[in-house]
Amino acid sequence: MIMKTSTLKCIGVFSLLFIVAGLQAQNRYRVEDVPNVQLQDYTRYVSDPENALDMADVMWLDERLARLRDSLIVETAIVVLPAIDRQYGSAKEFATELFNSWGIGDRESHNGLLILLLTADGEREIVFETGYGTEKVLTDGFCKLIQVQKMVPFLKEGAYGEGLIVGVEEVEKIFNGTSEFQVKKPLLSNNEKLALIWLVGGLIIIFLVEWIRKKRIVASDDPFVNAAKYQSLSGIGCLMATLFFPSYFLYMLYKAIAKKEDMPRLNCEKCGAKGKVVLKYKPQVEQKAIPGQDGLKRYHFICKACNHGYKVLVPYKYVAPQTSSGGGSSFSSGSSSSSSSRGGSWGGGRSGGGGASTKF
């Protein structure tokens, strides 16, 4: 009789353990187990299968998220679960898979947001998963700040509804530009400042190099021949174009538009005027260059002060004419495939894992 009683007790204990284990197993959700409330009712945005939230909080959240969707074009889903299946490496991984499985947000702008709340002891965590478009405004940093400074104080006390409400309110402020976490952006970012310094610095260096080269020509023993041979940025042009390409492009554009004289302004040997001698005509070919023999070009300079002229002959090398060959151009056509639209009222948005998670 005693043996039978002990056996019955053991059976009862094991049965109870199996029941508890079964309940715990049922409380661990996989992505496919989470009910998508949008498929049931397009006015619902909160999936709370274990009824962890008060009905009044759920109604408030549904109403606020509907307004967020209509006014700011941000589709938001809230999911409250006790725990997730152990097959997922993290709650963030679960959120990313759930987001993409449901397709939260528009398929063009990817303006979705998933807020996942886990409530089981030892596994409590709040997760934000943002779509590709949403993360441009609701950055990972903002997600973390909202969780830590606004939501976690309530969530730690078990006030899940209040925590979600303040989180949604702060998300709305972020998109309206009225959040305390948003600081006024400077006129230029650090990268933009560096780019501007590089651009302006390049222009200054190019102008300075040109000025020094022209000064050397003016002070040389044969300034007229050297001036005739002068070429803008010759020799260091490739270096300048490589180091300061945008600056080099702007410099050449400026010269083309302003039609600045490329040759240095020389000093007049007759009247002594400084920088008044300029090229009067385009150089004329005195002797045409042929293969194996240089040609001669005649340059005519004139002083703008006394009208005295200078003529110099400068040799130039033969340049073989270039032949152009026509080449066919090939075009590759790619086939584009479009995935079928998802059911329910979600628009097929995608997430690349943006957002943040905080355990509490």
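The record above closes out task 2.4. Task 2.5 opens with a second protein, given below.
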Amino acid sequence: MGILNTTRNPFSKYSAEEELAFIDDIFYVPQYYGELKDLLSEGNSRFIIGQRGQGKSMLIHKLFQDLSKNHTLALLITRYDGIPLENNENHLLCRILQSLVMGAAKQLYLHPEKRKFLDKAQRNKFALYIEFFYDEHCSGQFIEGAKEIHQIKSANRWKRFYNRRVVGVLNQLINGTLAVSTDWIRRSIGLDSATTEVAVRDYMKEIPEGKIRSVGLNEMATWDRAKLLSMLNFLVECCHSIGYGSVVVLFDKIDEFPEVSGDIESVTAFTQEILRDTDLLLSNKIAIVFSLWSEIKRSLNREGVRFDKFREIDIRWSEADMTPMMDRRLLHFSADKAQPVKLATLIPAESDRKECVRLSEKSPRSLIRLLGTISGEMPSVPETYSFFSKDAISKGMVEYCKNFDYESLNPAKLGSRDDLINWINRILRIKLADFTIEEVRRTFAIPTSTASKHIETLVKLGLVKDSLIEQNGNPVYSVIDSRIQFMIARGVVALDE
């Protein structure tokens, strides 16, 4: 069962990571994109701010791809394991250094002719940095790139030279019989291990002695910050020497990894030090991009993060963007590109399309989930269809609203997920999208003081707001989320009914 004129289900994948193979086909270019890309290429750091599901990761991955094609060394950081939740600025800086070393090493591997643009001192020092900042994950990415190049070069006119130099080692790596090492990485980019000796002697005078082969992240973080920044500047200079006009570091999912659990206070503590470092972020040698949940901005502002200095990019979409954005996605999945499937094809009634866009709260991910839910409500006979039935649209909207992950949008930690669901169910039992304290009191047969506390909690949870109007002298409170409003209008009195 499926939609006519499609190659596969357009609504089965929700995350940017699952769609990297066809990101160019489905990416809807926002108005600010060209200017943002140019600013990053010129060394200007930026904050990307948005609600969950609005496409921050998709934007980051698209920037990574496009910047990499434009004489820019783009680095994507999504791993934060081993980094403490507080007092971690040096740890994050060292993670940048790890990624930068392996990113530059990979480019030297892909383009060995660029080694000649590094002088002897640069080659010696760079070889040493491979030792210092070796990271198993980063080196693993290096090897994956090497395997790809191995497959390409095995079939071209450089085969004989290439095979004579490194293919034996690569074959062992591919077969899993040899672990990647700093020696192998250095040799594969033409930096013999003997070249590090002078650099080692010089640097060991300035850096506390210890094992030279890979320095742990925690140990690196104890080094003098000025020395770390000097290392960063040196690596950026190396990148310029081998032909890169700029270096851009993209941080994604920094507020989503398990240790912070989406808690605003934890995310603020984790990010505030590096986000307050204006010397690093205002440096024109390297551009740093942070993708952040919009709910965290106020908390970071209180901690002294200067959003005004970096002109954050607010990626909220307008309702007018949602239909062409979905049509671009549907074009990719259409078998006949000349007459592709469109949102108006699937949902012929304009009123239903508008309601779908409203229920998505201008989130591409939510709109995809909603359309997937509607598709799942279609009858199994006939096996294919060209549009959604009115019944499927109606049922799909209700099911989508009842099963939506409200917790993912809620930053306040006032209890468990079950507590949040219970509070939404309380709103549904009131059966009104706009209500007063008196109506809450009557619904639950509770004292006025208790009803007031209920509303205080609903406001803290971001579920209702004071509408600034009164009814018979009593303030009126309004439900914020369009999905909860919709369920009230449809007579839903509990999410699990």
